């Protein structure tokens, strides 16, 4: 996916209703759903749904087809990986609104208030966010990325098996000290760095994502050196 397309997709999915629509279409599978079915399932008014579908279409995430008398909406199949971000203090670290996910074996169950405030300023919905344990993983990830020093060198769940692993170390903002402005700046720096790296991950071509593990590992390590 090219950088401009990745940015468009991220922007579209940062809105809670559009993210819900996209997830519903993935669950629906190749058969897709009509706009009426989507609106009924999610409780979105037709006028609002039309706007959201247009934004998702412009971002290249969905495609409409004519199914007899009705319009059918499908999600566009793209290279998909289950990516797990591993951090020792997810009360502060969970910045991203969807897959990838961040977990730790002893979660607090909370998200740091400064993280929530930052997400609100960035226009990213955060309802239902909480830190999670790796004991509750719904699937075994394809890629595990550690984002702080203690996660990189600490105990990792052995049952994950031979997954692809990378290290994207970021200074943890919850450890910052100083004035409120200085602490907020630390949170913003962590967010900007992780966002830049995730956008670079989304921009990798399909041939790299689905190609040789060594090649993908090289790219993940390169991305881990980027800064926001």
Low-confidence parts, pLDDT < 50 over ≥5 residues?
Answer: 90-105
- Major sheet size, sense and barrel closure: 4 strands, parallel
Strand order of the largest sheet: 4-3-5-6
Helix content class: 40-55%
Rounded radius of gyration (Å): 19 Å
Structural class: alpha/beta
Task: Using brief descriptors, characterize the structure shown.
228 residues; 4-stranded parallel beta sheet; 44% helix; alpha/beta; globular; two-stranded antiparallel sheet
Helices, strands, pairings?
Elements: H1 3-13, H2 16-28, H3 35-42, H4 46-58, E1 62-67, E2 70-75, E3 83-86, H5 90-93, E4 101-103, H6 113-121, E5 143-146, H7 149-153, E6 164-167, H8 180-202, H9 206-209, H10 213-223
Parallel strand pairs: 3-4, 3-5, 5-6
Antiparallel strand pairs: 1-2
Describe the fold and architecture:
- By secondary structure, this protein is α/β, with parallel strands linked by helices.
- The protein has helices spanning 3-13, 16-28, 35-42, 46-58, 90-93, 113-121, 149-153, 180-202, 206-209, 213-223, and strands at residues 62-67, 70-75, 83-86, 101-103, 143-146, 164-167.
- The strands form 2 sheets. A 4-stranded parallel β-sheet has the order 4-3-5-6. Strands 1-2 form a two-stranded antiparallel ribbon.
- It is globular, with a radius of gyration of 19 Å.
- It starts with a helix and ends in a 5-residue tail after the last helix.
